[in-house]
Amino acid sequence: MYFGSDNQAGVSAAIMQALVEANQGIAAAYSDDEWTHRARAAIADWFECDADVHFVSTGTAANCLALACSLEPWQIALCHGQAHIINDELTAPEFFTGGARLLGLDAQAPKLSAITLAHTLSQGSAHPPHNAEPAVLSLTQLTESGQVYSLEELRELTDIAHQYGLIVHMDGARFTNALVSLDCSPAEMTWRVGIDVLSLGATKNGAMTAEAVIFFKPSLAKKFVHMRKRSGHLLSKSRWISAQFLAWLKNDHWRELALHANQQARQLSAGIAEHPKCRIVWPTQGNEVFAVMPKAFIQSLRDQGGIFYEWTPSFVPAEQRVREHEAMVRLVCSFQTKPCEVVQFIDALHRT
Amino acid sequence: MYFGSDNQAGVSAAIMQALVEANQGIAAAYSDDEWTHRARAAIADWFECDADVHFVSTGTAANCLALACSLEPWQIALCHGQAHIINDELTAPEFFTGGARLLGLDAQAPKLSAITLAHTLSQGSAHPPHNAEPAVLSLTQLTESGQVYSLEELRELTDIAHQYGLIVHMDGARFTNALVSLDCSPAEMTWRVGIDVLSLGATKNGAMTAEAVIFFKPSLAKKFVHMRKRSGHLLSKSRWISAQFLAWLKNDHWRELALHANQQARQLSAGIAEHPKCRIVWPTQGNEVFAVMPKAFIQSLRDQGGIFYEWTPSFVPAEQRVREHEAMVRLVCSFQTKPCEVVQFIDALHRT
Amino acid sequence: MYFGSDNQAGVSAAIMQALVEANQGIAAAYSDDEWTHRARAAIADWFECDADVHFVSTGTAANCLALACSLEPWQIALCHGQAHIINDELTAPEFFTGGARLLGLDAQAPKLSAITLAHTLSQGSAHPPHNAEPAVLSLTQLTESGQVYSLEELRELTDIAHQYGLIVHMDGARFTNALVSLDCSPAEMTWRVGIDVLSLGATKNGAMTAEAVIFFKPSLAKKFVHMRKRSGHLLSKSRWISAQFLAWLKNDHWRELALHANQQARQLSAGIAEHPKCRIVWPTQGNEVFAVMPKAFIQSLRDQGGIFYEWTPSFVPAEQRVREHEAMVRLVCSFQTKPCEVVQFIDALHRT
Amino acid sequence: MYFGSDNQAGVSAAIMQALVEANQGIAAAYSDDEWTHRARAAIADWFECDADVHFVSTGTAANCLALACSLEPWQIALCHGQAHIINDELTAPEFFTGGARLLGLDAQAPKLSAITLAHTLSQGSAHPPHNAEPAVLSLTQLTESGQVYSLEELRELTDIAHQYGLIVHMDGARFTNALVSLDCSPAEMTWRVGIDVLSLGATKNGAMTAEAVIFFKPSLAKKFVHMRKRSGHLLSKSRWISAQFLAWLKNDHWRELALHANQQARQLSAGIAEHPKCRIVWPTQGNEVFAVMPKAFIQSLRDQGGIFYEWTPSFVPAEQRVREHEAMVRLVCSFQTKPCEVVQFIDALHRT
């Protein structure tokens, strides 16, 4: 019963097969191979625009290169207080940007609100060059608490940000989980609602290691190739990431993978919610379930083979205040989650 | 007839098979999986010591993280003037080290000499903190001109470096090509002759993307995991690099791959040397051949399907001075080079 | 009626005289002159310990070099949310530290509380190296809202910080204003209550440009001279800063200057408090007065020659909520503030 | 007999007097004071153009901020191999530029030659983004060996640099010594011969601590104020540097100071040249004398009170090869050098 993380999963069979098939003869190195040319075009097509697409092997590299292309070292990137970039990437954002600053907002809520954003930006900065000023807004879709920003919410947030001249970045480590949740097109969830640059992750949804930085505003990409090279993220044998993306896009393979993961999460969530001593913290909108349950249950589930993390309860909604004998857990489903694992887990819970 | 670069090759069948086999179920992320534990131990074993072993996906990352662990931002790393770190990694060394400096020596010779090193270090620095001081010596084995430092040469260079308190780094992007050339053990070519930290590349010798940083002096590794994380080089699905290394080491697979590449290069070299209008610039000791030939030949070989690079003739030995109508080329063999390609190339040359 | 800032004042007559007197013949450069040797020793004496003392010309340099000596680029420095380092030094802390992070706490209160600090540190970091961890606590004495931490408060905060292995830095841009307010010794307000490294500012209290970094824990200073040099803060004609410090310390000149400034502030505060439409926001403990008054008054006072800043009212105590027709102002006194200016200002206010 | 360095001198009486006079009342801080406005305009006037002028307190800060405004972190600044920026400023250039690279040329000659520059630039860079490329040429006027580039030489060098798209920086730590040597105008020695940005030093020629960065191409200055602030080089009490520059420019005070220094150096040089066992290494064109003399003389001169440095003989012209019993010395004159000191020194030499 593996619900630890979607990055603990393996590689989808179709993607692994694509790697095997890409192992044909010689290919130009350093992104100049045929696979890379095709994959870049395929992604631009997928987004129905002339996006400038580049590949790297980790989400941290994708996020931080996107940020580094979008602000100066004396500026600020705003993000949710629980965002991956501020919470889980050490100080990589500072490293890549040459020392720009992150400012986390709304850490107590599951999403960044337009009100908070507008308030923060309206305060302004009295005395340049003394005060660092916001230049980027970074949004995570799925958020770190498994929530999906609606298209309206995204539009509202990007409108405010653009009004103040900010660039808007989307951390799309779980982009496709959000996409199938909203049932909209990649274009609709990005540049059509004002996203300027996207980190698109395939790794968590079936790939081996495949991340892309996608500039919808190509002028932002000017320094990208230099920044990627000098951070050691230009792969020599570049065909391998590209081959993964090609397979991921082919026949909407990504959708099948993400739908499966989300569906398992929904089942899991429903099963947990039925237990009178458990409760779901936020609506299960993607492939992550956040639940509060008695600590004794957690131990028991682990004893029965459940793999999952306890989650920092710092931003549980007040009405769900975790009591002394309880704890909050995060359960993540992936393309690889077996329906029987979900059933087993719920059974185990209800037996407890 | 592909002699462009060994990083244009694909993946060896055994390594690809290992990837397929590693695609079994769930594995802990971020280097905490079973494959990674085993691969780290296997490499330490291979080196017959308690080396501290870490994986990354590019040679630039491996080199630069090794450097960043070995000096302060106000110090200097000495290297050969044609070293990959100073010539082909943009300013990645400066980026990772927070602004340390590279100083290239002996750019006109195929290897760094002990005399130059001793002379450079003996000059000293009169007035700290005004002058940046050398703290690292980085050696490339195979060198960028395909030469192998003998064990005696390595020992002499590291002795001088250590005498001045320097850390010695080896860039082993083509480590195994050198190893089979010297026919010695990994330990003999590294810590036993004074190497403190090694960048070990498997990518150029049959892997997909697999590089390691190996600290023979474990105290140097103290900051490594932080530096790797903040440069975006900690892979979430870490098993994949590890699985490559395991397959590469298994049954001395690396040796078979490297021997093949070197052997093809020797054949190629011998065939070229026989042509009265061509000459080999430096002895072919690894998998790279450097030759001077008439420009007309180059065009003709390309017309017949030859893939290779012209090479900057800046450091051709004086006695081999490239004449007006000539140019220098680099021909690289890999595990994938077919003997018939070599034969074909030599035939084409002699027919020209 | 100048209450803009204490850094808008000139230089005390005694310090200017010292500069004139130091202009005698030749002196060694780069901190190796007699004045510098004497000033370093005099400051260590003043602190009654073997402090390691270094000079720079700005408070930002002093703060940021102190921070850079105290943490790694992947760590966090905690500070009050209104601290100068996080609010008024652009991203200099990130620049000097190579990309460490600042985390501002208690921005809504005039001082950082032990409760907040303990709470923040107790949360811990679950998964190194993913999460950046606190390694420094930076306290400002006088705070940016003119408050003085008592010796007990300092001791409580440093105890908590040390319990978690943090280094404690004090930003003493207005150190002497706090010192005369507490009427204690320099040692009592620093290392005796757990301060590890201090930025000591003389500039705001009568000097031309004279700041010191003082390491009470000399092991922290190991990299200082290199960091100062490479940030361009090693003055060649070093005697001039040292001569200022010597004059500032001589016969407790600093005390006379700071007492005067604080006393003027107290007078000013008392005069404002008497006006029924004005109120003092925080007790006037140093040389800064924070008051709320009708906006009409502000205009009128400026028309009569009053120089001062409106202040961001973001962290006014709730019970003092600034009403629509009011605004908050900051009035700073310096060694140069004339008693008649204070009288004039109060008269003008009461006439309004 | 002080010939150690011109930064061991004091402050000219006129400049000290100006500081005393500037100590009048309150002044806006952070470069917004009247003195600063006037000094910026005065310098632009002096250069007969709309230069964008900014002040800092050290030459290293001026040089490094100028460089940081002129290239990207993945580019190269070319300079003479003995330039101050590469030899005497630790790794400050790397720090300020975020990790750009310096490449020293012609270290064996007293000046950088157009031939070397053209050759270096003509080699080009084959494979972006793998190779760092030159983006800045930095020239030192006076050079570190006391030589003056003629206007023709400057023009030739800047023409070549501009042809390849480089920005040309001049390190003018001893700008006025060169200016009086060439007897031309500030404009003629800078933007009229193609200099784009200048570090202008007054410190070595009579000021206390006063350096300026002067952008003749104002578009280069866009990031300057942010970079100065975040490197801690924006002084709060900014009037003091400005007052020095005003006094330095007034009535061509700088000229009088520089003429004196150069004249003393010429006398000294002539006196040394007359000694049959001594020889002048390069023509004495500014305020520095480089001479070879018997080691025994050096000791004897020091015993008689001579203060000066031995100089690294690494780039003595071949025809002057320093023999076993000889050494090379540098003797620097300043505005403060007394004619009697020169006479005394020559007498002492000839008595030896």
UniProtKB/TrEMBL annotation, chains A, B, C, D:
Residues 4-293 form the Aromatic amino acid beta-eliminating lyase/threonine aldolase domain. It catalyses: L-allo-threonine = acetaldehyde + glycine; L-threonine = acetaldehyde + glycine. The keyword Flavoprotein does not apply. Its cofactor is pyridoxal 5'-phosphate. Keywords: Lyase, Pyridoxal phosphate. Gene3D superfamilies: Aspartate Aminotransferase, domain 1, Type I PLP-dependent aspartate aminotransferase-like (Major domain). Pfam families: Beta_elim_lyase (PF01212). GO terms for molecular function: L-allo-threonine aldolase activity. Signal peptide: none annotated. Its EC number is 4.1.2.48. It is an enzyme of class 4 (lyase). Coiled coil: none annotated. Homotetramer. Belongs to the threonine aldolase family. This is L-threonine aldolase. The lineage of its organism: Bacteria, Pseudomonadati, Pseudomonadota, Gammaproteobacteria, Oceanospirillales.
